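Worked example 3. Consider a protein that binds benzoic acid.
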Amino acid sequence: MPGQIPLIGEKFPEMEVVTTHGKFKLPDRFKGKWFVLYSHPADFTPVCTTEFVAFAKRYEDFKKLNTELIGLSVDSTWSHIKWAEWIKDKFNVEIPFPIIADPMGKVAGKLGLLHAASATHTVRAVFIVDPKGIIRAILYYPAELGRNISEILRMVKGFQVVDKYGVALPANWPNNEIIGERAIVPPASTVNEAKERLKNYECFDWWLCHKEVPQEEVEAVKKLLKG
Ligand code: BEZ
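Given these inputs, the predicted complex is written out as structure tokens:
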């Protein structure tokens, strides 16, 4: 019976991990930074290889967002190192971030990454964790579909805009079908607030009001989406 798995809004579980960059503690290692922990089913598999190349190529974009990357699978450090060498030889791409080696599945078990009762491989998952160590998003993908790295960057940038300006962001932001690149004002929770919303913002109704986001934030996220 698996233990309780972490959920959005909870602190990332404290643990020591063994990685290709040595042992360290999570989430403390990245205190004050965002981090994206992503798991893959196995080293030396085709989709996972394309994902590692894709994450590595966008590493500088993550760093510009004060965000670190960390990979994870149930393979050993030796396997991770050899696979990274192979990727460098074939595609001339360095993997500049640590990869957790979890051959006993201890980390995978704590994070809920072994999905079928009989599973011995980690599912493709993404945890986006904020500078306070709080899990802000968890995504799961199947083995046969590689991740879209621009979307993960959009999410990190989106969370940073949400936190800085106290807003929510619409579908497909910054290219939303109704309000374009604007942000949603969180819904009112009192009668007075509802009236104020209609006076102070552009609204379709008091529960759907929107406002401008500084242009530099919009330009920054559009640049990330272009790759
Ligand atoms: C892949 O990365 O291609 C893969 C990994 C596990 C199962 C199937 C495919």
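Take a moment to read the result before moving on. Residues 3 and 218 are 41 Å apart (CA to CA). The pocket of benzoic acid is lined by residues 41-42, 45-48, 143 (CB under 6 Å).
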